[in-house]
Amino acid sequence: MAASAQFGSGACCVTVKRNSSTSLAFSSSLQSKIGFELASRLICRERNCGKRRALKVNCENRASAVVEKDAALRQGADGNAAQLSIVMKFGGSSVASADRMKEVAGLILSFPEERPAIVLSAMGKTTNNLLLAGEKAVSCGVSNVSELRELSFVKELHLKTVDELGLDKTVISGFLVELEQLLKGIAMMKELTPRTRDYLVSFGECMSTRIFAAYLNKIGAKAQQYDAFDIGFITTDDFTNADILEATYPAVAKRLHGDWTDDPSVPIVTGFLGKGWKSGAVTTLGRGGSDLTATTIGKALGLREIQVWKDVDGVLTCDPNICPDAKPVPYLTFDEAAELAYFGGQVLHPQSMRPAREGDIPVRVKNSYNPRAPGTVITKARDMSKAVLTSIVLKSNVTMLDIVSTRMLGQYGFLAKVFSIFEDLEISVDCVATSEVSTSLTLDPSKLWCRELIQQELDHVIEELEKIAVVHLLQHRSIISLIGNVQRSSLILEKAFNVLRKNGVNVQMISQGASKVNISLIVHDSEAKQCVRALHSAFFENDFQSEVEAADSIETSSATLN
Ligand SMILES: Nc1ncnc2c1ncn2[C@@H]1O[C@H](COP(=O)(O)OP(=O)(O)O)[C@@H](O)[C@H]1O
Ligand SMILES: N[C@@H](CC(=O)OP(=O)(O)O)C(=O)O
């Protein structure tokens, strides 16, 4: 069946053969016909016919369509005034090369019924390389900066991409010159402050978005690049781990919506970056922060859906690097996803669910390498009647403290004192198990991912705690979080402890969060991966679900008999 495929409110219009399905569960013919193969072969010619400006697009299948850029064509497929409808975020792995950028362009073009805003991360391993280059520049000497392997990697990757996409290298050459100058500045100062670190890594997203926008324009899909720090992403001044401030939402909505209404072109926004509200300097949102950029745009514009495109088939039952047999989880709630992200599931940024939850906007996690896979849909609520365990996550290298009051039993205010020490020292606590006079807790090793809890800080905490308690420091621990339906906690714990006993593992602490979706077990680092594999095998590879259903039906029938 032939269908008109419009992209970006009249920016580019193609008529192609496609299946009637417009759902995100890709149809194979849709993918093969309108994937990049086709998009790259589009020949877009802009014509000026007096007052009528039109785009004529010819496709290889000889189908063609003329798009008139007038008010009528700003109507969406749903007949509503065509505002931006979704945000699609592509991570570093999705845009790691020219070929990947072509695929992503094809992917975006293959949802003609959508009017997407795009968020991009830096290409491939660019952020890691920029960070390493910065660290090496501190001590390598100004004259050696040009030879830094990481700088050459970043330069070559971006120049090669520009070349392979047939773009003019001026799209990024200014950035490459400035990047080298910045590294020389770091070498001269022999110092890399968090503020400079953020400015340094921002080059990655600034370049990837410029390349991609230029490429979309080249193939006839009108696109506009935006630096997040210029369009209202206002953050705290916590360099390397900034928080989005409320003022961001109206500012971003005004800018993106305003521009789109004036002259619709696909916004290509830098992920991960913001602008400190006091300093006015570039900030970053913590590693993996482009997910948060996407959900922030979703909430700001009240979009229909937020899509995060990764290199895996959605959120999986476990980190595939630990359990290669991990399977996609079809549905999650915002609470489950947030807990999973916070407790180490590196597939999502820990803070990214907040704007989606506040705006009640579904998040879909998809695989840009396998768009037909249905992925994971994250929403406010889901049917939990059959849900037991959803996924297992691991957070390693955690520090645990056993704190026992030196005062007599019954002293009130002990816990308040303990937690006020952590508050004063700005150290966040992950898991807690407590009695009136003692408490065991784990400390977030990275204060939300990027800032390391350094030994000096730790010594200071212990020194303060020792004024009121006996403190045992236990390092190299891991938190294994069982994300699922805590209404079924007895069942989950029974199974989990059976598995751990069989594997000879001693659990050092248990914590069941108030979120009702997470049970955390603390074990020694050296046993953690083996435990996760054994638990994954028991819960997800051995038909545990049928076991549960059988047990449930026996319970139901005996309840009926009684
Ligand atoms: N539970 C999980 N589900 C899916 N992926 C996971 C999980 N835990 C860890 N990962 C890792 O997260 C990676 C995807 O996240 P990320 O690297 O941030 O993607 P991108 O850079 O494309 O945004 C996967 O390649 C996978 O190795
Ligand atoms: N480039 C940044 C931000 C980001 O979100 O990346 P990714 O989407 O590839 O995880 C990082 O590497 O942390």
CATH superfamily of the largest domain: Acetylglutamate kinase-like
Helix content: 25-40%
Shape: globular
Content-based structural category: alpha/beta
Q: Can you count the helices?
A: 16
Q: Which sequence of strands runs across the widest sheet?
A: 8-10-7-6-13-15-16-14
End-to-end distance? 60 Å
Task: Tell me the CATH topology of the largest domain.
Answer: Carbamate kinase
**Average pLDDT reading:** 83
CATH first level of the largest domain? Alpha Beta
Which molecules are bound besides the chains?
adenosine-5'-diphosphate, aspartyl phosphate
Uncertain ranges: 1-80
Largest sheet entry = 8 strands, mixed
Strand segment tally: 22
Please tell me how large the radius of gyration is. 26 Å
- Named CATH architecture of the largest domain: 3-Layer(aba) Sandwich
Q: Number of domains in the coordinates?
A: 3
Query: In percent, how much strand structure appears in the residues?
Result: 15-25%
What are its keywords?
binds adenosine-5'-diphosphate; ATP binding; 16 helices; plastid; VC0802-like; globular; 8-stranded mixed β-sheet; Carbamate kinase; nucleotide-binding
